[in-house]
Write a structure and sequence with these properties.
mainly alpha, rod-shaped, single chain, two-stranded parallel sheet
């Protein structure tokens, strides 16, 4: 049994273990989340996977996704999958892999590195979800603009009413002064 609880880790062995997980091999290991994250985010890890053949890369990506299902092994927004898939050509196999990642993930930051609800189970559902989010943003922006326009209209109307009240009041006061003046003139 491998012990991945210490810092004395062989990055190649760790990558091989992840590839094994990606190819559905049973792995009997103990893990320390901190050490696993240290390895997967290391320069050495990045260097090794940058020269990896495409088939092994697909298995590695699946292995990381499966690895993140282990208790306390979820990397959250720091998942490396988003970086690993950037090395792939966007062909049929790529889209199949993305669908697989959506269907098998436990980390909402897989595959693209930002929070996507776990209820989204395929790339097509993701695009539908994003389209609905964009429509919601547009609707909210339009609603906000409508409320702003209505508020400006209420303000304009209130100002007009205010001016009209004061104008009427001024006219009334003027009429009262004229009437008092006329009474005074009549008395004299």
């Amino acid at each position: 049994m491998s012990d991945y609880r210490t810092n004395n880790l062989d990055v190649k062995k760790f990558i091989d273990m992840l590839v094994g997980i990606g190819s559905n091999q049973s792995i009997n290991c103990k893990f320390n989340r901190h050490t696993a994250m240290e390895i997967i985010h290391s320069q050495e890890f990045g260097n090794m996977v940058s020269v990896m053949d495409i088939e092994k890369m697909y298995l590695l990506i699946k292995g990381v996704c499966e690895f993140e299902k282990y208790p306390d092994m979820q990397f959250g927004s720091t998942t490396r999958i988003k970086y690993l898939i950037n090395n792939l050509q966007k062909d049929f196999s790529y889209h199949k892999l993305i669908d697989w990642l959506f269907a098998n993930r436990k980390n909402p930051y897989i595959p693209y590195g930002y929070d996507i609800p776990l209820s989204v189970k395929s790339e097509a559902e993701y695009y539908t979800y994003e389209q609905q989010r964009e429509e919601h943003r547009i609707n909210m922006r339009n609603l906000d603009q409508q409320r702003h326009t209505e508020a400006l209209e209420r303000k304009r109307k209130n100002m007009e009413e205010h001016i009209a009240r004061h104008k009427s009041k001024e006219e009334w006061e003027s009429l009262k002064r004229d009437a008092v003046d006329q009474e005074e003139d009549a008395e004299n």
